[in-house]
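thought: fold this chain, then report.
action: predict
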Amino acid sequence: MPRKTAMVTGASSGIGAIYADRLAGRGFDLLTVARDRGRLEEQAARLAASHGVQVSPLPADLSGREGLEPVLAKLREDAGITMLVNCAGSGPKGPVLQSDATGLAAMVHLNVDVLHALTVEAAKAFAARGEGAIINIASVVALMPERFNATYVASKAFVLAFTQAMAEELKGQGTQIQAVLPGFTRTEIFERAGIDINVIPADMIMGAEEMVDAALAGFDRGELITIPSLADDGLWQALETARHVLGPHLSLKHAAPRYGIPAEAV
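observation:
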């Protein structure tokens, strides 16, 4: 039987690199996507030697259509791909009001538009084949928007909501989907953003290896949403229950009485 292939974006460093290593350890062949060809080729040789799998680097700058299109084509055309892990993304360098508009737009494009395009392409291909899995890296800031750069928060809230909605569409299609919500994770993203990681309390920062191992354990458990730091899963379930309780009250014929608008005026 041929081995299954996982595509990992942002695979040359940080969370993506750990996913590549762990999936290779599970016997997946890999398609690794990132901008840095040298790092990808070095990683490919190392993973192939240590895990005995085939690793195919796919250098691509996903921020541009010319880089994204070949990756989308791979998802469409390569029937051996059964997993997509969306790790590519970027973080902010400060609050929105102190940020360059071009940089914010680039962050939205990578965190939202690119992830959206890849997920949709993979979902269509996997559903048609009746087999597949998609893992999207979001962030806990999606659940506490007051605490971080507003544009980044919104981009990760998109990933969370998009994954939840896609899970409904993929039911019965043989495709599993998961959103992972890490907290602070020790990766190169802090250095690239010019943030001194030492200003963050050490007990709030998880190692990337531990984060990915927990996320994959959640995947194995069939979790739609995995929050690696959350010890009491009942807290998440309570939030979900409250959200569903709101549902029947969110779209009605008349405005709520507290707004003092006569029904006949509507």
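thought: worth noting. The chain has eight helices and nine strands.
final: tokens above.
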